[in-house]
Amino acid sequence: MDIFESRINSSDFSQIFDYQYQTALAWRNSSLEERKNRIVKIRDWVKTNQDAIRKALTDDFNKPSIETDLSEIFPVTSEINHALKNLKAWMKSKKIKTPLSMTGTSAWIQYEPKGRALIIAPWNYPFSLAIGPLISALAAGCPVMLKPSEMTPATSLLIEEMINTCFDSEEVSVILGDAKVAEGLLALPFDHVFFTGSPQIGKLVMKQAAKHLSSVTLELGGKSPAIITSSADIQDAAQKIIWGKLINCGQTCVAPDYILIHQSQHKLLLSELRLAIQQYYDPQYKGIEQSPDYGRIINDRHFQRLAGYLDDAIEKGAQLEFGGTVNQHHRYIEPTLLSNINESMSISQEEIFGPLLPILTFDDIQEAIDYVNGKPKPLSLYIFDQEKSEREKILLSCSSGNAVINDCVLQFLHHEFPFGGVNNSGIGKSHGYHGFLAFSNEKGVLKQRVGLNNVTLLRPPYGIKTKQIINSLIKWF
After folding, report:
1. How many CB atoms lie within 10 A of CB 425?
2. Are the beta carbons of 1 and 157 closer than 8 angstroms?
3. What is the per-residue burial (b if ≥16 Cβ within 10 Å, else e) of 377-395?
4. For the chain, which terminal residue's Cβ has fewer other Cβ atoms within 10 angstroms, N or C?
């Protein structure tokens, strides 16, 4: 299935971009009901095409159907329901307080659509990470050009079918193609660009957007640590980390990238991690490769990258604690636990994005904090402990896009949560109200009473009275 050569050339999507300008003007005044109706079209399509979504994800990288329901369909339907329930409140202008110096005026924040938006979606959750931002854009009143990933052709074609069924191209348009197509799209002066992917590509997206001063939301990634203190419930931590790490075969931006475990709990953790893997993916002892619940690596390039990380770690002294089996023909990599990690290894430097889990130890919590702070700021920080003082020390000392205490990954499903990274792991927040804000301009409006002029005495020619008034306004605390 070859969709890498876009069916729409650069002149075609430039024309669509021009058409969407008129739509953006018309949608600037769109009503609550009009915006809701656009979102409902997607909801109705998803409801009647769930089997097609499951099949597309299976075709692309053997994603288990239950996992598709949990990580692709549910995030979209819950995002839709949350938007439909709360959109009226989000759109409503919000009155702001009047300071003494502005007596006589009134002011409020009015939310207007930014305008034409570009969404570039990734391959790891190709349906939910394309449609979730689209819901936010439609809620804000923005027409969209959407580029799904070329690495998941079945899902991308399905998204194209959905959008063509629900919208005219001047409202929402899907552009299929590879990185060259993305470059062509980024050459256009969009009002907002929403990109999900790696920090390396995110830098290029930001550079292109800067040429037009387009605002950006960058949902990136990085090496998200799981810190397990001496007070943690090790069995609970192991079960939650294995689930968070191995869903989608580890190809998850918020998956725990590595573990930092207190030395006193190291052996017990290894035992519980092995047990959790066995319970989840091989309860009948038929082999994990036979499990219907364990996915595969997206393509040969990423398989070779991960296999290379594993070989490099073993060659440089890593201890294989579990797993290590690979099958290139099926792009299968067994869940793998590694200890005795050092900084010369690729898995210590690069985001893993696969089912390899390095485990490092520490004696004092400050060691763990220093290790995390020695790397770029992560998208997520996971803390497993039962002592408030250590937990607060970690939260105050380590910067991250989000943090979760005693669990993994669940923050992505919390619609009131400002999901997103910081610096290297992302710019801007998304989901729910925060997604609505990403595609909206918060326009401040100030209203002065007719006939009232607060600043008459502050205008030239300046005199003693003016100086007295200004001195009264300048307050020292």
Report:
1. 28
2. yes
3. bbbbbbbbbeeeebbeebe
4. C
Q: What is the CA radius of gyration of the chain?
A: 25
Q: How many CB atoms lie within 10 A of CB 159?
A: 25
Q: Can you tell me the distance from the alpha carbon of 7 to that of 13, in angstroms, rounded to the nearest whole number?
A: 10
Identify the CATH assignment for 225-412 out of 2.60.40.10, 3.40.309.10, 3.40.1000.10, 3.30.450.20.
3.40.309.10
Amino acid at residue number 113: P
CATH label, 10-220+428-441, candidates 3.40.50.1820, 3.20.20.70, 3.40.605.10, 3.40.50.150: 3.40.605.10
What is the pTM assigned to this prediction? 0.94
Q: 143 is written with which tokens?
A: 């027409």
Report the catalytic residues: 219, 253
* Cβ neighbourhood burial of 406 (10 Å; 0-12, 13-18, 19+): middle
Q: Are 104 and 449 in contact (CB under 8 A)?
A: yes
Residue pair 341/238 in contact (Cβ under 8 Å)? The answer is: no
Distance CA 72, CA 65 (A): 10
Residues 166 and 175: their CA atoms lie apart, in Å, by 15
Per-residue pLDDT of the chain in tens (477 residues, 90 and over written 9): 455 555 666 558 889 999 999 999 999 999 999 999 999 999 999 999 999 999 999 999 889 999 999 999 999 999 999 999 999 999 999 999 998 778 888 999 999 999 999 999 999 999 999 999 999 999 999 999 999 999 999 999 999 999 999 999 999 999 999 999 999 999 999 999 999 999 999 999 999 999 999 999 999 999 999 999 999 999 999 999 999 999 999 999 999 999 999 999 999 999 999 999 999 999 999 999 999 999 999 999 999 999 999 999 999 999 999 999 999 999 999 999 999 999 999 999 999 999 999 999 999 999 999 999 999 999 999 999 999 999 999 999 999 999 999 999 999 999 899 999 999 999 999 999 999 999 999 999 999 888 766 666 677 888 888 888 788 878 765
Question: What one-character-per-residue DSSP string does 202-259 give?
Answer: HHHHHHHHHTTT-EEEEE-----EEEE-TTS-HHHHHHHHHHHHHGGGG--TTS--EE
